[in-house]
Design a protein that fits this description.
By secondary structure, the chain is mainly α. The protein has helices at 2-21, 30-54, 56-61, 66-81, 90-120, and strands at 25-27, 85-87.
Length: 126
């Protein structure tokens, strides 16, 4: 449960940073920002895997670059579901999703990988 709250908080911060860096992304209040982060997490957990599976040949053909577009579509879909959060166009969604991905990677995923890899190798010197 704590991991979900940490990811949600990081997503809120990443989306806040995206609203400051990317023109075309707007929110009304902090509640809308938090709600958008929650909806984005749900959309990424439910819709994104289905869409990724359906576009698997394109994912392979483009060596995964289509996943960037899928992330932008998830950003647009989540913004359409939250009335107090707005994304003006596809390009804003694309750059906003890129900012969000980088923050998520830097704050949550990378440190988690470091702590896991530290204990996975039993023959490494301590």
């Amino acid at each position: 449960m704590g991991g979900i709250l940490v990811r949600w908080a990081v997503t809120i911060i990443a989306v806040f940073v995206a609203t400051r860096l990317v023109p075309g992304i707007h929110y009304d209040d902090w509640v809308g920002l938090a709600l958008f982060a929650a909806v984005l997490g749900l959309v990424n957990a439910i819709v994104k895997p289905i869409l990724t599976l359906l576009t698997l040949p394109l994912v392979v053909l483009t060596l995964g670059l289509i996943l960037v577009l899928i992330n932008a579509l998830m950003f647009l879909l989540a913004s359409a579901l939250v009335p107090s959060f707005a994304v003006d166009n596809f390009w804003a969604a694309l750059f906003g999703s890129l900012v969000g991905q980088r923050h998520q990677l830097a704050v949550v995923d990378f440190p988690a990988q470091l702590s896991v890899s530290r204990y996975e190798h039993p023959h490494s010197p301590t």
